[in-house]
């Protein structure tokens, strides 16, 4: 069973587009939206599409919402989990190709990268300053070199799903997943994915928060 | 007695009363009660007899007793902040666990 996990917080305007893109795919079996205690109508919008909606009663952060989704997926006997952004940034068409790669190459985990092809129109400052710095920080904390950092698109096989446990409740979970991938000797690969930019995303302040979380919560 | 000494002593007495009240309502353990009362009494002694710190300052190679008080206070404050951060972090993790369990339990109930 292939389950898509979508952590969502105040995404009532974009969750519909995200879900309608995903519902066209025939390579996924279930979609789970984990609402992280949104104050808007994210839940109502998601329910319109008939997907499974889980709700955090208190806002705990994206990492916490993902882990809740992963635990639900384990409970639902998922073979593969696809982490996907709620804000229509990812391209649903990348999922089926990623699943093929995971199965064909017998990998444990795939990380999406917006730098492996030229489909993503990345803002200049993000492409040349923020993401290169993030890559270096990722490398310092994990010892793993990736072309992208903090990409919400991720595909995890059963072994990765059982081994990886996200304890970083906020945005530092990306780096933590990489740390655990290395720690448990999981096989991984980066695959090209498209990232659409509707807004800037995490800026320098967000980056500083991630470093703080990584240093304090180790 | 200087004004500042009187103000500090009144504050310390107020702090001791608060500590006792916290202990009586069960917010503080006996060890905490003893530790905090000792702390504020020691503060009172230093305020009444400022020269009492001189001996210990000299022992540690610090020129003035007042400097020793500042150094010890700073170290103590950092330690307390560290302890608080660890405690807050632990509480955050526990909140996440409770929220997650509630979420998953509700999901299981709905699926039954």
* Order of helix and strand elements from N to C terminus of chain A: EHEHEHEHEHEHHEH
What gross morphology of chain B would you assign?
Answer: elongated
Proportion of beta-strand residues of chain B: under 5%
Fraction of residues in helix of chain A: 40-55%
Order of helices and strands of chain B: HHHH
Which class of chain A in CATH terms?
Alpha Beta
Mean pLDDT of chain B: 91
Helices and strands of chain B: which structural class?
A: mainly alpha
Pairing-aware structural class of the strands and helices of chain A?
alpha/beta
Helix segment count of chain B? 4
User: Helical residue percent of chain B?
Assistant: over 70%
> What low-confidence regions of chain A span 5 or more consecutive residues with pLDDT below 50?
none
Q: Can you give a write-up of this model?
A:
The complex is a heterodimer of chains A (218) and B (112). Chain A contains 8 helices and 7 strands. Chain A has 218 residues and is an alpha/beta fold. In chain A, strands 3-2-1-4-6-5-7 form a 7-stranded mixed sheet, with helices on both faces. In chain A, strand 2 (30-35), helix 2 (42-47) and strand 3 (52-55) form a beta-alpha-beta unit. In chain A, helix 5 (124-142) runs parallel beside helix 8 (204-216). Chain A starts with a strand and ends with a helix. Chain B is an all-alpha fold. Chain B is built from 4 helices and no strands. The radius of gyration of chain B is 22 Å and the shape is elongated. The relative contact order of chain B is 0.06. Chain A binds chain B through residues 34, 52, 54-58, 60, 64, 67-68, 71-72, 75, 167, 169, 216-217, and chain B through 85, 89, 92-93, 95-96, 99-100, 102-104, 106-108.
